[in-house]
Each structure stands twice: as C-alpha cells, then as structure tokens.
Please model this.
Amino acid sequence: MCGRFNVIDSPGLQQLLRDLGIDLTLPRGVNLAPTEPVQLVRELADKRIADAARWWLTPSWARAVDQKYAMFNARSETLASSRAFAHPFRSQRGIVPMSSFIEWRKEGAARQPWLITSETEALAVAALWDVWEGEGLAMLSCTLVTTAAAPAFAPWHQRMPVMLAPDEYERWLDCSRVIDVDDSLFRSELKQPLRLQALPPAVGNARNKDPALQQGVGEIVELPANRAKS
Model:
C-alpha cells in the first residue's frame, strides 16, 4: 500500500527526470494524499510527457467520479483480471516520480509513520492511468502499482510500491510491449537500497503540509538492495 508521498526537488530527483527524458522541475508536493494532483510521466505518440493527474483512478467507463472503491493503489497480482485496471495495464502505463513515501507501522498501541526513500532521494513508481470524460471535462487520473513487500521491508508493511529500476523505465512506459503479472518488474525485492526513519505523528493528518514534518526523528534504518538476476 502507498497512501502518502512527497515530491521535493533534489539533485537525485532531477537526475531521475533526466533519465526519464523529462525536462521539468516538479512542483513541490508534501504529504500528498489520494485524490490530490500528482505528476505522471507517460509516453504518447513516442514522446515522453509529464502531466498533472488525479491520484485515484477513475476508469473511462465509470458513470461518475467517486471514491466508492479504493482506486489509488492497484495490486500487481490482479492487474490483468481487474475490470478497472486491465486495459490501462495493457496500454496506459506511466511512472510517478517521488522523493519518498510514508507508511504506518503498528508499534505498541500506536501507529508510527515512517518516511521511506532511496539513497538518491528519488523513486520511480509504476503507475496506470486513464481519462474519464463527463460533465464537460476530461480528467486524467492514475493509480500506483503495488506488490508484496520484500522480506526486509515486510516489518513495516505487507505491501510496497513497485519501485522501478532505471533499466526498467523504457519497458514499462513502452505500451507496445506486453507485460505479464508474473513479470520480474513485480518481484518482491528491493532494487535499490532504502532508508527509513520515523516521522512525527502529526504527519498523519493529510492537511499538514509543513515540510518540517517530513524531517525524520531518531535512528535511520538502512535496507540493502537484494535484486535477483533476471
């Protein structure tokens, strides 16, 4: 599961965008939550573009925009069989660049928020998108793809975003290529080292957009990469 993340300009995030072929400085986004606009990188007519998309996928065939079903995450295991995600999985794949994401872990009687990032403070998370048209507007929306947690990450959450390695960007974005649900992209492994640090409890309120709340407290936990050979 991934229900909050941050976009904060840094050399690592700038390099990620260059690797994606995007010449853009992303607007800052702190404590971003589902239904908020996020930046989505996708490939249209052989050109990479970045657009603002609503983070909660609304299928093109939906009667209306609503939050009846949790559509901000999509489980990799069921992408091909899901009515909402099957078509985007085949032909509407994208990447959401981010600096870090937040997960909550039960610690005693409390749920402690943790900030998760990479050594470069840049993550490329697999996404799906769709365009809904109605009420006189066309709305681009997206969902983040998740997979079962890597063993090292499992103590924090049983799910994690699909964090793509640089050598996977092109294959994921090129929708002329067929990707199956058992593809190595979705393996429960860490493709890069991660850094985790506890956050102040106030970050739990999505209206708290103070960047100071994203400053970790206490010990930094480092998880090494464990990517298997393809």
Remarks:
- Helices lie at 11-19, 86-91, 169-173.
